[in-house]
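Here is a typical protein record:
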Amino acid sequence: ELVYELQHRPVDSLIAVLRKATAGDSLNVRAWEDLSRRLLEKGDTTGALSASQRQLRAEPNDRKLRLGVAGALIVRQEYQAAVGILDEGLAANPGDLEMLAYKEKACLDGTMWQCALTTLDQEFQIDTALAKDSIFYQKAFGAAQSIPDTAAMDHWSKLGIEAFPNSVSLWRARAAGLGGSPAPADSATGPGTSWRGRRGRHSTCPGAG
């Protein structure tokens, strides 16, 4: 009966039917999904996202949906909410690098430095390729410096110069980590650009805008 109504009613009426369906059964995944889609058709992006979040509660193991919701929250600059959504997924699968990349972006863009530092460390422990990524060390050091966490500054600057002994920017970070002058922005990034503006392969959020 619901399927028939959905196929033969105008959008406003469909939305009303779907709201009634979800009110009667909050675990009706199909109804939440359809409601989100219809709300998008109406241009109600806030309502559509809310419906998707309710769908995720009913279907917490839907990884693609979780990443989609988190990405949408990041685009809307709702960084803390995005981190919460991602943490729920990471509780079940702490080694999910894509989910960690989304969380890294939320933490960095939201200037949640401790969150960023913890996430970067988790990524480093899992993804061995990051040991050969000089920008990653700069991001980790920058997050530590922004807290500030002197022990972490020392840790990441030391790892950085061990991996890239000829990197001027990492030696500057090392000097700062040892209590010298603050590490300036790398001249390669251009005037007025800091490490936070540089994009490594774990600093963007695919599909999130």
In short: Residues 181-209 have pLDDT under 50 and may be disordered.
